[in-house]
Amino acid sequence: MVARAALAVGLLALLTIPAWVTDPFALRLLVVIAMYATLGVAWNVLGGYAGQVSIGHSIFFGLGAYTSTLLFLHAGVSPWLGLPAGMAVAAVVAVLIGFPCFLLKGHYFVIATAVLAESFAVVFSVWEAVGSALGLQLPILDSSLANFQFHDSKAPYYYLSLAMLALALGAARAIERSKLGYCLKAIREDEAAAMSLAINIRRYKLVAIAISAGLAAMVGTFYAQFVLFVDPPSVLPLSLSVLIALIPILGGIGTLWGPVLGAAILIPIAEFSRVYLSGSGRNVDLIVYGCLIMLISAWRPMGLLGHARRDEPGGQRV
Q1: What integer pLDDT is reported at residue 274 of this predicted model?
Q2: Where do the structural domains in the chain lie, given as residue ranges?
Q3: What distance in Å separates the CA atoms of residue 120 and residue 128, rounded to the nearest whole number?
Q4: Sign of the CA dihedral 239, 240, 245, 250?
């Protein structure tokens, strides 16, 4: 009862934030936190539940951004239709990547995903059909929900980012309670044992990476409409893949709310160091990230929420 009341109060506070937060930077920060929390949830489907640690999720984020943008610029397709199209493209590419990469295990899989992420960035940087290194600029349209553009206030972006995060959390929760979730956790803990139970390991891994990629692409489309510009350094950098992975690792890998907590800690560090330290603070956030990860690795290897979930009465390591 108390937990439900606290949840209701928290939801009410989140929904009323634009009414009392007037600082544009603060509202933008909340949008970015929700965006990265959603990316963390997306990564968690593959890296947390299935145990396949990826450093290549910038690929799917970038594909979502580029697909919706290209469809709008060349075919006049609404970003709202470009969003599911981007999710579908990312899911297909993820499955194609998964077929060879899932033959690798451990750090070999991590290295493969990192190499692919860097390769996609290089290809898009020289591919003239997608704007090459110059990127793509979206035209400024009238502020409206139909155009997916809002210029007078960032409040609509805030509510859309919350809806996006709620959708991702709902999907993750459904996976946790489904046969898919139990099979993914079995694969994570012991692939040989899972195989002995007649679990089709490759098929479930492919499903996990497809779902994970689709959710990441959804955020990519949102980002493209948020900034109205996409280019390889902004949507396909390897550093983005690293940050996406660090968020759930810090908050609690394999937990539902871990990515939200991780984003709430890491993203403000990055934004405040960028704004208030300006050029003198360049890469300060990376130094802080490194220190946090070393502390978490030594103190709470499963993340801030990972041990709390395991230590619950009757709880299990998830």
Answers
A1: 72
A2: 26-237
A3: 14
A4: positive
